[in-house]
TrEMBL record:
Every ABC transporter domain range: 2-232
Family to which this protein belongs: Belongs to the ABC transporter superfamily.
Superkingdom per UniProt: Bacteria
Gene Ontology cellular component terms for the protein in this record: ATP-binding cassette (ABC) transporter complex, substrate-binding subunit-containing; maltose transport complex
CDD domains found in the cross-reference section: ABC_MalK_N (cd03301)
Protein name: sn-glycerol-3-phosphate ABC transporter ATP-binding protein UgpC
């Protein structure tokens, strides 16, 4: 188990990690996700011991390890650019750290074969890296890390050099590997789909602070702020500026310049009157009969993916994405009426903080 307690990091005067508290439980697959430059790699390198920690505590299994050198932490790290030794075979690459430690050759061979089996590299052990596909090379890099039997494995964007089909395959393989090794994993990515599909727990980072952490579906359903709301989920949540009024008890009425008119239950009057932002995901907008629904808008873009179709409606200043069924008969230029599912609406204040509860 790892704890980060109020961890800070400065590069000169620039504070890049601004007091981060994170707990990763034993055996968990944790994903740190966030946009480029938010501090993901820095955090991971601090856990590995490759960067110093300026303030706060890094605790591994109850012990403060801020000052423990990297090779004494029992942590393995797999980088995005996995430089394999080109002149060595796959087996030699995987077994290199054991050979360095003068482990007898037969024992190295035995352990390499075990690792190769887990990673489905058995047939490639005698090849050089140049004769492998990108995914196979990535698995060799993982093999090099796991042969040390680390209790904690850190991955820094390990799949970003792979094509999309391979990425999908490797996502599944990494999950299988996690189950088999029973190791704790901290995985860094800027790709929210990778985070959603692989994580037990997601930590969303923004500008050196934790924006929110939780189980993938908890972040999807109950984002604490506009940043997480629009970062998790694809296509992203629509944000529509609204004015809130409270005409009658137990309800809040929302109006927007795009012509939207919507009542939400607000039993305890949590929503202040005035300016706010309505968050609604593409999948929670439904086509309504003409003249019905909460608003109507012109369709400007139709993207057909087969199983589903995404329509962009409204103006260039306020585009709204709607998920519809694949075969929907709609063309750009059509006008559609839309209903927002009130139970799936989110409200944010001008600072982007969620206003709860919205619905009763
Ligand atoms: N050695 C350094 N000196 C000064 N600033 C640095 C240094 N390394 C990183 N930074 C800054 O720290 C911030 C966090 O960098 P970091 O590499 O952790 O981001 P990241 O979240 O991993 O981004 P990416 O998704 O692009 O890999 C960035 O603003 C970066 O410019
Ligand atoms: Mg990085």
């Amino acid at each position: 188990m790892i704890n980060l307690r109020n961890v800070r990091k400065f590069y000169g005067a620039l504070e890049v990690i601004k007091g981060v508290d994170i707990t990763v439980e034993d055996g968990e697959f944790a994903v740190f996700v966030g946009p480029s430059g938010c501090g993901k790699s820095t955090l991971l390198r601090m856990i590995a011991g490759l960067e110093g920690i300026d303030e706060g505590d890094l605790i591994l299994n109850g012990k403060r390890i801020n000052d423990v050198p990297p090779d004494k932490r029992g942590i393995a790290m797999v980088f995005q650019s996995y430089a394999l030794y080109p002149h060595m075979s796959v087996a030699e690459n995987i077994g290199f750290s054991l050979s360095l430690k003068k482990v007898p050759e037969a024992e190295v061979r035995r352990q390499v074969e075990g690792v190769a089996e887990i990673l489905q590299l058995t047939d490639y052990l005698d090849r050089r890296p140049a004769a492998l596909s990108g995914g196979q090379r990535q698995r060799v890099a993982i093999g090099r890390a796991i042969i040390k039997k680390p209790a904690l494995i850190l991955f820094d964007e390990p799949l970003s050099n792979l094509d999309s089909a391979l990425r999908v395959q490797m996502r599944a393989e990494l999950q299988r590997l996690h189950r088999e090794l029973k190791a704790t994993v901290v995985y860094v990515t800027h790709d929210q789909v990778e985070a959603m599909t692989m994580a037990d727990r997601i930590v969303v980072l923004n500008k050196g602070v934790v924006a929110q952490e939780g189980a993938p579906m908890a972040l999807y359903h109950e984002p604490d702020n506009e940043f997480v709301a629009t970062f998790i989920g694809s296509p992203k949540m629509n944000i529509i500026p609204v004015t809130a009024t409270r005409p009658a008890g137990g309800k809040v009425h929302l109006d927007s310049p795009i012509g939207l008119s919507l009542d939400l239950a607000d039993a305890n009057g949590a929503v202040p009157q005035g300016e706010a932002k309505l968050g609604i995901r593409p999948e929670h907008l439904k086509i309504a009969a003409e003249g019905q629904g909460n608003f109507s808008a012109e369709v400007v873009i139709v993207e057909r993916l087969g199983v589903e179709t995404y329509m962009t409606v409204g103006s260039q200043q306020q585009p709204i994405v709607v998920r519809a069924e694949g075969d929907i008969a709609v063309r750009s230029g059509d006008r559609v009426a839309l209903t927002a599912d009130p139970a799936a609406c989110h409200l944010f204040d001008s600072a982007g903080k969620v206003i709860r509860p919205v619905t009763a």
